[in-house]
Amino acid sequence: MLLSELAHVRSGDKGDTSQISVIAYRLGDYPLLAEWVTADRVAAHFPGLACRRVSRFELPGIGALNFVLEGAMPGGVTRTLALDAHGKTLAMQLLSLDIPDDLP
Amino acid sequence: MRIGSGAGFSGDRIEPALELVERGDLDYLAFECLAERTIGIAHASRQSNGRLGFDPLLERRMRTVLAAAKQRSVPIITNMGAANPLGAANAVIAIAREMKLDSLKVAAVLGDDVTEIIRHGDFPLLDCEGSSRSLVPSMVSANAYLGAEGIVAALQQGADVVITGRVCDPALFLAPLIHEFSWKMDDWTRLGRGTLVGHLLECAGQLTGGYFADPGRKDVVGLARLGFPFADIDQDGSAIFSKVAGSGGSLTVATCKEQLLYEVLDPRAYLQADVIADFSEVTIDPVGDDVVAIAGAKGHRRPDTLKVSISYDDGWVGQGQISYAGPGACARAELAFEIVRERLSLTGVVVNDLTLDLIGVNSVARTAPIEALEPREVLARISGRAHDRSSAERIGAEVEALYTNGPAGGGGASSATRKILAIASTLIPRDSVEVSVEMLVA
User: Fold this and answer.
1) What class, spelled out in words, does domain B313-425 have in CATH?
2) B363 contacts on A by Cβ (under 8 Å)
3) How many domains does chain A fold into?
4) DSSP class of residue B226?
C-alpha cells in the first residue's frame, strides 16, 4: 500500500531545510509508520534532493513523525533556482512511498 | 480571552479578517505578514522612498478593519511595519484621521533594525560557512527577531494598534496574553503555551482548512469562503480553537496536527526570543464541529541570543520558458537548452548554474523518475544566475529567440529577470538590542 492510505502530510521550510510531517489518520497505524517510515527511507525516496542529513522526530501522542531534510533546498528559499523554492510540494510526493502489506 | 488571526502572509486575503472583527466577538486581532525575505524587499523599497518600506497592503487592510475594530475596542497587533514601523504608524494615523477615528492610539515598536550592529561586528553565520563581515559590503538590511516585550509595553500604554517590524511571529499573539494575564517573563511554561497558541494562529487559514484539501482523501467544505481562526485562551494558557460560524473551511484535529508541526524542526525545542517552547507532548482533542482543544505545551528558559536575518544583494536570475508538444517534445526541449547554453557561451555572456526544468516532468518532482509514456506537452524552463542585470536578461532573450532559431514547434515563449535578495542568519547577544515604543495619537 502507499503511505497516502495511512497518513496525511504537510511541508514547511526554514532556510535551506525542508520539514515534512507525516500524521497517521488512525492512531493505531502509528507503530507501523514508526517502524517503516524511517529517515533513511525518506532520504532514499528523494534521490533528486541533495540533503546533508535527514532526521526524524517522533510524536506518538498525536501519531505523527516529523522529518527534517537539511540542505533540501540548496541556497535556501531566497537563492534557489528551483520552481518550488519553498519545497511546498515535497510532502505530497512522499505520499507515494510504498509500504509492504505484510508488515506485522 | 479571544485572539483572532487576520493574516498568515503578506499577500493574504483581507475579507476573512473583517468577518472575524464583525462576527468573531474578538478581544484582539493579529496580522502576521512578514516572511523571512519580505523585510529585505521592504528595506529596498524604503531605500527608494523613505516614506515606504512597510507592508504594501497595510493601508488597504486598515481601511477595511480599523473602524469596525475601534468600534468594538479590539486592539490590532501586526508586523506590517516591516522595514519602517514608524512610517507605517504614521500611515495608519493618516487613515484614522480621514475616517474620523478620533484619538486612536497607534504604537510603533522599534529596535529590531540591527544593521549598525552587524556592520560593526562579526558573527558566525548559521546554516552556512563564514561570518557576517563577508556580507557587509552587499548588505541591504539586518533585523533581529524581537520577542513580545515591545508589544506588551505598547498595550500597557493603551495602544489601539501596535505595529512592529521583525518580531518572532508567535510573539504577536503571545504579547496580548502576557498583557491581559500578567504572565511573568520567566514563567516558561505559560510562555511556552502562549507560543503554541501563536504558532497555531500565525498562518491564519492554514489552521482552518487552507493548505489541507486533497479531494477524495481530505475534503474541505467551502474552501472558497475559508474563514480564519481564533483561540479562546485561559489564564493557564490552555486554548480552544475555532472559527466564525458559517464561514468556509474546517478546523479539525487533523488540520491542527498539520499546523502544529508546520515549520517546526525539533518539536522539543521551538526556539523563540521569549522562550524555548516544547510541543512534544501537546494534546489535541475534538470539542465540537470546528472546535478543537489544545494543551500540554511546555517551555524552557529563553536563549541569551537573538536570531538576526541579514538580507544582501546576490546578483540576478534570468529565466525563459517555451512549450513543446507532440512526439519528441522532451527531446526538443533538451535540444533547446543545449542551444541556449552554447549561444550564451559563444556571445561571451557569463551565467552560472544554468538549469533546465521540464515543467510537467521534473520541475518540482524530486522522487525517482518513473518509466512513463512521453508527456503530450512539456514547458521548458531555462534559468541561471548572473552578476548583472543585462547578462541575466540575455537568458530569457535567447529562449525567446528559439521561436525562429531553435527546435521545431516551440510556442508560448516568455522571459523574466529578477534581482536576488538573499538571506543569511546569525545570532547576536540579546543585551545588544534595545527595544522602544513610539506612540502616535490621531
Assistant:
1) alpha beta
2) 83-84
3) 1
4) B
